[in-house]
Amino acid sequence: MLWRLIKFLFVILILGGIALVGYAYVGPVFFPDDFDPQQSEIVLPVTLEPQP
Fold it and tell me: Cα separation of 26 and 33, whole Å?
């Protein structure tokens, strides 16, 4: 009985891994907005010290 539970959990783990890898490869084709990074312009002032 316990062996069947362990096998079942192992199969679920393998199928979940395959689904995750499949989503990583196929996801950008079907859901491009979910995979685009958030872009915004950031302006920071920089003060440089003179070299001696």
Answer: 13
Dihedral sign computed on CA atoms, order 37, 39, 44, 50: positive
Over the stretch 4-52, which tens digit does the pLDDT of each residue have?
999 999 999 999 999 999 988 998 888 888 888 888 999 999 998 888 7
Q: Is the four-CA dihedral 21, 23, 29, 33 of positive or negative sign? A: negative
Maximum CA pair distance of the chain?
A: 78
CA distances to 6, 16, 28, 40 from 21, rounded to whole Å, are 23, 9, 12, 29
| pTM above threshold 0.70 | no
C-beta separation of 28 from 35 below 8 A: yes
